[in-house]
Amino acid sequence: MERLEVRELVYFTAVAEELHFGRAAARLGMAQPPLSRAIQQLERRLGVALLERGSRRVALTEAGAVLLRESRTVLDAASAAARRTRRAGRADPRLVLAIKPGGDGGLLPAILDAYQAEPGALPVELMCSFGEREVLLREGRADAALLHRPHHDLTGLDTQDLLTETQLLVMPSSHRLAGRTRVCLNDLAGEPLPRWPGASEGGAHGPEIHDLGQLLHLIALRRMVAVLPSSIRGQLRDDLVAVPVDDAEPTTLVLAWPEHATSPALAAFVRAAAAVAGKVTGHGG
Amino acid sequence: MERLEVRELVYFTAVAEELHFGRAAARLGMAQPPLSRAIQQLERRLGVALLERGSRRVALTEAGAVLLRESRTVLDAASAAARRTRRAGRADPRLVLAIKPGGDGGLLPAILDAYQAEPGALPVELMCSFGEREVLLREGRADAALLHRPHHDLTGLDTQDLLTETQLLVMPSSHRLAGRTRVCLNDLAGEPLPRWPGASEGGAHGPEIHDLGQLLHLIALRRMVAVLPSSIRGQLRDDLVAVPVDDAEPTTLVLAWPEHATSPALAAFVRAAAAVAGKVTGHGG
DNA sequence: TCTTTCCATACCCGCACGGTATCGCTGCGC
DNA sequence: GCGCAGCGATACCGTGCGGGTATGGAAAGA
């Protein structure tokens, strides 16, 4: 079985994305002819046509589309491998936890304390990032992340549930719904909702949200409202009110890490987090 | 950022598994010196020591252990990519479904019929394999597989639940428990249980099971008993009896496929299977 | 038909990969 | 304690392949 090389996958990905050999070659910092040859050779070795070379346009074949998707996972895995190996070899081992400021449900201090009490606990480095935390995990930049189910895509990650919360509508006190004791999703028709980085949903406009303070500020300025987990209550400004959204799916705070991770430090952290979560929800350690 | 090449990962994996440069080189069909150099170069580029060269022994460093695990996922992804691409490019497109004979809960005929009624349905090729079906999926040899939760490790796979069943203890009619109307797991202490391929649990002895007929035969011969999903009832021989195991976790038959799969043929198959499963369990389509 | 565009082909070069020979260290046996 | 054997590292060399430049050739637009 002929071996598939990373270099070939990088080349193919460039061409498949650009659908143009010249531009792809430029992007790769090389000349066009060797790129053409590399792709031909790849096709020969796979015994499959990957591209349809029309006179004036290049298109992906069915097999090419498959390889493009597969290539991305291979390349992601490869760079994650490099990063994780490098981090494992660092002289100062640390556990990198990706969090969203304000998105920890108030559990984080207790979890960190519990973890530091574990034998062999490493220093924990917090990586604050409002969006893209799952990407940090998949890229091997972080060891674990606090995410929300079902908001985040958790495929390929192992998880530990920490806290399930109902959701609140957060709005300025002058908002038309501010007097209600409860709302439902239908009440929100036409309301401007925040645009989260990474999620390119239609219907949401305005600036991307990168920071909780920014979001609350924009809400106070009546530029938008937001549906947030109820643990947000402790961080609200005076000029904002929050009421339960009856039919919003409950959101679960989960600790997530790359599947197959074996580091004992991570295992200890998961144990600590599970213990803290168990106490909060009353199930005991 | 220096790029990590597949060839280097293959080399490193060989050395890390053999813990011996000479044997690794032999396994790779090459001489030892270039292998040594390649590993050194890999370490230099990563800036990390991967192996501890003792005078007489080679050992993995912490980072080396990480890279070994990561390498395996990268190499698996790469060969799966090649296989999936090749299969997508075949002139005769088919959908390959990995099944275990007798492990379909009786749903398979209906699912196949329902699928063939879908527009654009492909011929379905059944790949019978008693164990290792999940590996077939991960290796890209099959498009989908019928698996059992929680028996199989489903991380990295997307799934559709089909059928949840209680489990039965299957034994010869002369067995000491054959008269019982129900048993619990404690009753099975000391009973010889089948050794499934792939699962190397302690406590189970005797030949590996590769085939349902073989298993039932061995049970009839009083060589072992087995805990199986209740849909097995229809396939029992006269000389075997089955009684419910009260505290055995229910087992769910799931249709599983590689995450990120986008093939419309697979999507149609999942739809068909879900519809059939919905009818059986009474939830409607 | 002439031009432009863009991929393929032809040809050349340098390097890095792989091979052989050998060194150097270390642990073991006599 | 000396020699030997095992094993990884180093030295050196040849060649195949990855990449570059120049050019061909087909097709679409003017």
UniProtKB/TrEMBL annotation, chains A, B:
Domain HTH lysR-type, chain residue ranges per copy: 4-61
Any single Pfam family the record assigns to this protein: HTH_1
PROSITE patterns per UniProt: HTH_LYSR
Keywords: DNA-binding, Transcription, Transcription regulation
Annotated GO MF terms: DNA binding; DNA-binding transcription factor activity
Any one Gene Ontology cellular component term annotated for this protein: protein-DNA complex
UniProt family annotation: Belongs to the LysR transcriptional regulatory family.
Protein name: DNA-binding transcriptional regulator, LysR family
Organism: Goodfellowiella coeruleoviolacea
